[in-house]
């Protein structure tokens, strides 16, 4: 059988990795897919870059400086989009779909913002959009959620899904360094971009979480409703206190089913040090899924890099090749649920989220301060789990007061925090970090 023809848009880190993995493992891939998968054309952003790409792929594969040549080529069956960003990626993907071509993409931002439009267009044309590489690199979490756990009612997902922030937090904890120092080191080592905003402010993780949430709970892709906080204001002091209390701080993406809606949030989170996910260090990724039949499962591996991400791209290519001649109505749906089964379950605003909290207050070292703080919490029906008070040095007039609470509604905590912050004995802005037991 003739090899399926693939047009590759973008030959950066992941694109080059995809090309080399396909070349190196062609025999195994053909055996698994049932036919060969051949790169028929590569597109660059311009003619100059196309010449550079030609040196990578050799003379056997034409490299062009206009991606429209790929999406409009009559002999190409699958378009692989690896340029990232919103435009021109969105236009190219929709044009490929309009031309009846399947699409494989690693572009989480594109799907988080425009997934509903793209999946609807693909359904209308009877083609597939595969995106395993868009979430957690080489970890097959999309396939696990969409297929492996299809018998389960998923209760919640919690994931370390950004390697840059996990590297920074690991270094801050392990070496006691501040955020700015570790960020510079991460940039030097290539773990962080020169402009790391999307990573350190949690946006990249929120893109990925939005896709997982849609698949897990059968809801539309709704990135605009996610609550997103990053790690740029996190202090080494709080990482140290968390450690003393038996916790680690990680940037988590959390989505949870509640009776009144779905939580969709990314923020720094205290996790018990005994949890496996709390011990994921460096630039690695991990996702924990809680489901009714299978219980708790953990997916761990490299979340970025040339060949780990290429592994997911090629796996998608194999899946699409297997299904290329299948009836579109009998393929696995893009978001796991059939289109008419997608629900309008609301995403809860952050004020309605239920979680526990770590609080650090810099307070005057005088009698009655702790009593007043605990009274305010009790008045807002917030239960205390643990209290840690740093012993003041001789002559020091202030101290750190650390409080861990049990689960409460965030809006209730916000009101209590405002009341505590107004006290004359609270000498600095209160630090608040959410806490999850993940039991």
* Global mean pLDDT: 94
Point out poorly predicted stretches. none
- As for the number of domains, it is 3
Overall geometric form: elongated
Please report the number of helical segments. Answer: 15
The CATH homologous superfamily of the largest domain is called: NAD(P)-binding Rossmann-like Domain
Distance between the termini: 50 Å
SSE class: alpha/beta
Q: Could you name the CATH topology of the largest domain?
A: Rossmann fold
Corresponding CATH architecture of the largest domain: 3-Layer(aba) Sandwich
Helix content: 25-40%
- The rounded Rg comes to 24 Å
- Please report the total strand number as a whole number: 17
CATH class of the largest domain: Alpha Beta
Keywords, please?
Rossmann fold, 439 residues, Alpha-Beta Plaits, 11-stranded mixed beta sheet, 3 domains, 15 helices, alpha/beta, Dihydrodipicolinate Reductase, domain 2, single chain
Structure commentary:
It is a single chain. The chain has 439 residues and is of the alpha/beta class. The chain folds into three domains: 4-138 and 306-341, Rossmann fold; 141-302, 2-Layer Sandwich (Dihydrodipicolinate Reductase, domain 2); 355-434, ACT domain (Alpha-Beta Plaits, 2-Layer Sandwich). 37% of the residues lie in helices and 24% in strands. Strands 7, 8, 9, 10, 11, 12, 13, 14, 15, 16 and 17 form an eleven-stranded mixed sheet that branches. A six-stranded parallel sheet has the order 3-2-1-4-5-6, sandwiched between helices. Helix 3 (47-57) links the parallel strand 2 (37-43) and strand 3 (63-64). Helix 8 (163-175) crosses helix 9. The longest helix has 18 residues, at 108-125. It starts with a strand and ends with a strand.
């Amino acid at each position: 059988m003739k090899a399926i023809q693939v047009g590759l848009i973008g030959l950066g880190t992941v694109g080059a990795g995809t090309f080399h993995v396909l070349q190196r493992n062609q025999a195994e891939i053909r055996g698994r897919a049932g036919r060969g998968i051949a790169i028929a054309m590569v597109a660059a952003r311009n003619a100059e870059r196309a010449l550079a790409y030609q040196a990578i792929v050799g003379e056997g594969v034409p490299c062009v400086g206009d991606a429209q040549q790929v999406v409009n080529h009559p002999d190409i069956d699958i378009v692989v989009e690896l340029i990232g960003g919103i435009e021109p990626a969105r236009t190219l993907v929709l044009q490929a779909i309009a031309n009846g071509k399947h699409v494989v993409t690693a572009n989480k931002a594109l799907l988080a913002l425009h997934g509903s439009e793209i999946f609807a267009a693909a359904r209308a044309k009877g083609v597939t959009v595969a995106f395993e590489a868009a979430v957690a690199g080489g970890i097959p979490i999309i396939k696990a959620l969409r297929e492996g756990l299809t018998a389960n009612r998923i209760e919640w997902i919690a994931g370390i899904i950004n390697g840059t922030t996990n590297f920074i937090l690991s270094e801050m904890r392990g070496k006691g360094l501040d955020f700015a120092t570790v960020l510079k080191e991460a940039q030097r080592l290539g773990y962080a971009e020169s402009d790391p905003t999307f990573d350190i402010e949690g946006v990249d993780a929120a893109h990925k979480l939005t896709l997982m949430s849609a698949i897990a709970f059968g809801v539309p892709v709704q990135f605009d409703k996610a609550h997103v906080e990053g790690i740029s204001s996190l202090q080494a002091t709080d990482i140290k206190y968390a450690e003393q209390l038996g916790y680690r701080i990680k940037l988590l993406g959390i989505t949870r089913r509640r009776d009144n809606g779905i939580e969709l949030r990314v923020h720094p989170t205290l996790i018990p040090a005994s949890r496996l996910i709390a011990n994921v260090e460096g630039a690695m990724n991990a996702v924990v899924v809680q489901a009714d039949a299978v219980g708790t499962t953990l997916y761990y591996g490299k979340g970025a890099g040339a060949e780990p991400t290429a592994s997911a791209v090629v796996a998608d290519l194999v899946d699409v090749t297997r299904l290329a001649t299948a009836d579109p109505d009998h393929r696995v749906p893009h978001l796991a649920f059939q289109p008419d089964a997608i629900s309008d379950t609301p995403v809860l605003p952050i004020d309605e989220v239920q979680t526990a909290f770590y609080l650090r207050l810099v307070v005057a070292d005088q009698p009655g301060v702790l009593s007043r703080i605990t009274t305010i919490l009790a008045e807002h029906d917030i239960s205390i789990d643990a209290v840690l008070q740093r012993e003041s040095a001789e002559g020091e007039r202030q101290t750190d007061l650390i409080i861990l609470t049990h689960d409460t509604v965030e809006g209730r905590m916000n009101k209590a925090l405002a009341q505590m912050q107004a006290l004359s004995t609270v000498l600095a802005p209160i630090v608040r970090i959410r806490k999850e037991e993940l039991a």
